[in-house]
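Quick one, tokens below. Sequence please?
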């Protein structure tokens, strides 16, 4: 009798647990079937992307596709008007809407005609899909004026990476747009470290996704510290690795709680960065565990592009954005491994070393679930000089190592704007000190950016002396300093080849309509590229 009663109690308890689970609030992503208005947007790209974003796509030969089209507004409105369902965020790249609500109400959405699937954050329910791989393309060189900074004692990053040659050659990130996706930037708009950026209107875009406002000078200091490593400049005391760049500041992290929606906010920030025309993304954030343990990630997901945030990071790379991610600070924890989205194969995941190049014990390690090397490279991440809240601080973490690399990548983008992200990453790996014998603690090691610069400059060769004029032009353009016949290619902003041939001193382009084009000049398998503007007739 006691066994029977015990069995009944257990059975009732299980039944009650299922009822409570069905009634409790769950997080899920609703994957939509299509985008009915895609033809309109693909035929009118300026309705969804800025001229700068289209410029970047053309530079890398990346075609527009349906992932660039916004989430279909009537679908969003239908979900927003559904009782018991709350829309938290959404991603156009993954055509998904992050929702909260009772499990049974969210499950019911799967029957809607425009819904492909409902994937719950609870790992007992969902099965995620995986994106495809990426193409590769590159190169050439565009130098700015040589600059001179008083570094004071802030030289560790430059010494570790042999990077002084970049700024000595005028590469400071000038003309490059960097997005910092983080947890907050309190006081950054009045900080001495960023005065030079605001003085030239260098902050191009801001958005705070948790609070749904453009005001980002709030929340946690972490973002301001990270930004100071990239763009900060106080003469004689602090010189970031890309003080000449432009910046977009985005908050996607809510430090007061850990929720799956933060991954979707990160995706929204990356999509906004893409639409503005960002060249490089830095994020010193990572996701493993959540307040609800049922949502936790597992080691088996690493490197498989299963985590939502990792899929978004991979998509950003495929859109032509260089994505640099902190590997994580779990080296001393039971997890030990890199986090998400640092696990995404396409991104540059950065671990931490001290000032002598020795790995810090907290730096997360690899490999991923498929045996791939992670982290990718290492940089200075122990007692790094930062500036926020009106004074200098010396925190440690891969959060500080990633922005060192981000700034140096931006410098290289300035110098070699046609070096596609996959090509950039490969070149960085090849100049790292453990490239021949990588491991799961250091990855490929500490990259030598001075050597990278010299290698790429040598590849660009004498083509860098060619000057194209006039620009803007009306009919013909002329090539100055060109001594031999060259092949030329002309692409429009959609990546379509519109003209090609052989030229010596002039190129006739009378048939082109008004607009922006890319001119590629090739000689001995080397290329140089120029942006052209055709005047209205």
């Amino acid at each position: 009798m006691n066994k029977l009663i015990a069995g009944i109690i257990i059975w009732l308890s299980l039944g009650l647990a299922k009822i409570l689970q069905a009634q409790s609030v769950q997080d899920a992503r609703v994957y939509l079937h299509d985008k009915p208005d895609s033809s309109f947007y693909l035929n009118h790209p300026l309705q969804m992307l800025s001229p700068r974003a289209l410029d970047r796509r053309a530079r890398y030969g990346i075609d527009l596709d349906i992932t660039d089209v916004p989430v279909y507004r009537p679908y969003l409105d239908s979900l927003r008007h559904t009782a018991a369902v709350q829309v938290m965020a959404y991603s156009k790249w993954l055509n998904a809407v992050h929702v909260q609500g009772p499990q049974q109400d969210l499950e019911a959405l799967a029957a809607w005609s425009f819904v492909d699937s409902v994937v719950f954050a609870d790992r007992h329910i969902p099965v995620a899909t995986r994106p495809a791989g990426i193409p590769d393309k590159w190169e050439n060189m565009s130098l700015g004026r040589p600059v001179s900074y008083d570094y004071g004692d802030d030289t560790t990053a430059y010494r570790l990476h042999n990077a002084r040659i970049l700024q000595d050659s005028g590469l400071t990130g000038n003309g490059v747009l960097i997005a910092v996706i983080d947890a907050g930037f309190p006081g950054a708009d009045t900080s001495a470290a960023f005065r030079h950026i605001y003085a030239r209107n260098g902050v191009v875009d801001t958005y705070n996704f948790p609070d749904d406002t453009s005001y980002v000078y709030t929340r946690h200091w972490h973002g301001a510290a990270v930004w100071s490593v990239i763009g900060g400049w106080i003469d004689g005391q602090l010189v970031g690795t890309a003080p000449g760049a432009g910046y977009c500041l985005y908050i996607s992290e809510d430090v007061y709680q850990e929720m799956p929606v933060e991954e979707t906010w990160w995706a929204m920030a990356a999509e906004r960065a893409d639409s503005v025309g960002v060249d490089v993304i830095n994020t010193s954030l990572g996701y493993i565990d959540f307040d609800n343990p049922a949502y936790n990630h597992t080691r088996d997901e690493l490197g498989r592009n299963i985590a939502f945030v990792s899929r978004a990071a991979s998509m950003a790379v495929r859109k032509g954005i260089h994505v640099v991610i902190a590997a994580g600070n779990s080296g001393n924890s039971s997890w030990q491994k890199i986090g998400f989205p640092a696990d995404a194969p396409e991104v540059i995941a950065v671990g931490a070393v001290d000032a002598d190049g020795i790995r810090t014990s907290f730096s997360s390690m690899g490999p991923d679930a498929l045996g791939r090397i992670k982290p990718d490279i290492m940089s200075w991440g122990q007692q790094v000089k930062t500036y926020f809240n009106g004074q200098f601080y010396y925190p440690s973490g891969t959060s500080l190592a990633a922005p060192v690399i981000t700034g140096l990548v931006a410098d290289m983008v300035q110098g070699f704007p046609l070096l596609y992200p996959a090509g950039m990453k490969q070149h960085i790996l090849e100049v790292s000190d453990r490239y021949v014998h990588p491991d799961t603690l250091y990855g490929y090691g500490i990259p030598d950016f001075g050597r990278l610069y010299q290698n790429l400059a040598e590849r660009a060769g004498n083509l860098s002396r060619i000057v194209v004029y006039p620009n803007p032009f009306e009919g013909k353009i002329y090539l100055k300093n060109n001594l031999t016949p060259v092949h030329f290619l002309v692409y429009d902003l959609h990546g379509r080849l519109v003209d090609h041939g052989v030229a010596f001193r002039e190129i006739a382009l009378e048939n082109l309509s008004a607009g922006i084009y890319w001119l590629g000049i090739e000689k001995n398998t080397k290329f140089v590229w120029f942006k052209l503007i055709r005047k209205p007739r």
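The first helix runs from residue 2 to 23. The CA atoms of residues 189 and 199 lie 11 Å apart.
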